[in-house]
Amino acid sequence: MSVTIQEKESFEANGYLLKKGLVSRQEIKQIRQELPDIHRRMLADPPPEVHVAWEDDSVECAPARKGRGAPDESKIIRQLMHSELVSPTLNRILRSDTLVDIVAELMHPQVALYHSKLLPKEAGIGAATPWHQDYAYWQTDENKPIMLNCQIAIDPMTLENGCLEFIPGSHRWGLQDHEQHQETFGRFLPGRYYKREEGVTIPMEPGDGIFFTALVIHGSAPNTSPHPRWANTFAYNVPGNGEHQVREVLR
Ligand SMILES: O=C(O)CCC(=O)C(=O)O
Questions:
Q1: Domain of life, per the record (predicted)?
Q2: What CA–CA distance (Å, rounded) separates 75 from 193?
Q3: Residue to mutate, 220, 234, 237, ligand 1, most ligand atoms under 8 Å from C-beta
Q4: Which CATH number fits the domain that encloses residue 85?
Q5: Model-level pTM?
Q6: Per-residue pLDDT at 3 exceeds 50
Q7: Domain assignment of residue 187, given as a range
């Protein structure tokens, strides 16, 4: 699977590109099998390099709405940073030729891993991700906004369970002023999250993936549905673009 001329033109115009069937059903099944154990390990003894942010503790979890990852636990993961260190399947996928070939086409022929993060959004609990540009988090004095993000769907993703939404073409607007708060997803555009007229909703099936630039504005609604929405995001960088923003050169 690589990128057609039409897809590249669409990516350049919109700032994002959806690829259906990027990851096989078998690999998605393997990730799902790993999740309960990952959740248990994060509760008991997370490895030092892995950073877990939990859903707001004040959220009451009704028994029917416990996290799918660990049905008998009340703490729900909101974001798990460096998921490649706890999921062998995600680690394999992020470096597969299928993904790296596309990143090389859309970003730069040299490709490095910046980070990988697991983003569960549990049924009826998962919070909104406010509108933002990733570069608002990633900018330093020495890097450029040339990184590329790729989110893969582990579950079916819909507007109701909080799939990604984008503002097409907003990657051409430059970095906007973001509010900054001490919380997960604490950098966001004024208004945090609300339904935007010009927002384009991108539903995905398990195994679909969406590539998007560091400057395109995106966000996602809370999960108000009875269905979990697990996803994982791989961020790629060009080697040399930022001193601490390359974990591993892949190509
Ligand atoms: O999964 C989400 O809802 C948000 C993910 C996101 O915004 C990101 O990875 O930059």
A1: Bacteria
A2: 24
A3: 220
A4: 2.60.120.620
A5: 0.93
A6: yes
A7: 5-249
Q: How far apart are CA 122 and CA 226, in angstroms?
A: 9
The per-residue pLDDT for range 150-183, each reduced to its tens digit, is 999 999 999 999 999 999 999 999 999 998 887 7
Rounded Cα distance between 233 and 82, Å, is 10
For the chain, what is the domain count? 1
The residue contributing the CA closest to ligand 1 atom 1 is: 119
Distance (Å) from CA 47 to ligand 1 centroid: 23
Triad 145, 147, 148: Cα angle to 5° = 130
CA of 82 to the centre of ligand 1 (A): 14
Cα 128 to middle of ligand 1, angstroms: 9
